[in-house]
Design a protein that fits this description.
With about 150 residues, this protein is α+β, with helices and mostly antiparallel strands. The chain folds into 2 domains: about 70 residues, no CATH class; about 60 residues, Beta Barrel (OB fold (Dihydrolipoamide Acetyltransferase, E2P)).
Length: about 150
């Protein structure tokens, strides 16, 4: 067992951890720290230095892949729909007619929302509509046909 190579790999791992702490979010240096720890373990079991370097790069690559995959999955979780995006797919009643290229008003859950038609068609008063999307501060709706209600 060569104490110098083990010490070198341990110091290198500590250095990579310190660098990662100064540049969070990238995981590059943390991956290198894992690789250095793996190479230190290889040095403990007295594998040749060239194999330790190969082990360092292999473990670094695997750690980088795993850490970035975990981070990417954590960042792209779908959250709970809130505010006006939660209204998409719900239905409401037209309380002020919607004319082509003009806003009308729709009542949804007791609240009034400005709305326009999805295909710029006229939607008369008291028509049931479905919210298709949200554009800025108004809803985009389309009328629900009788067959859609049942």
């Amino acid at each position: 067992m060569n104490i110098w190579t083990i010490s070198l790999w341990i110091c290198l791992a500590a250095f990579f951890v310190l660098v990662e702490l100064t540049s969070p979010g990238l995981f590059y240096f943390l991956s290198c720290a894992f690789g250095a720890c793996g190479a230190a373990l290889g040095s403990f079991f007295q594998i040749p230095v060239a194999a330790q370097v190969v082990l360092f790069f292999m473990i670094t690559g695997c750690a980088l892949y795993l850490l970035t995959t975990v981070a990417r999955n954590a960042m792209h979780k779908k959250g709970t729909k809130t505010n006006c995006t939660a209204l998409i797919g719900k239905s409401g009643i037209v309380v002020s007619e919607i004319s082509p290229y003009t806003f009308g008003y729709v009542k949804i859950n007791g609240e009034l929302w400005a709305a326009s038609s999805v295909d710029q068609q006229f939607i008369p008063l008291a028509t049931s509509v479905k919210i298709v999307s949200v554009k800025g501060v108004h809803l985009v709706v389309h009328p629900i046909e009788r067959k859609d209600l049942s």
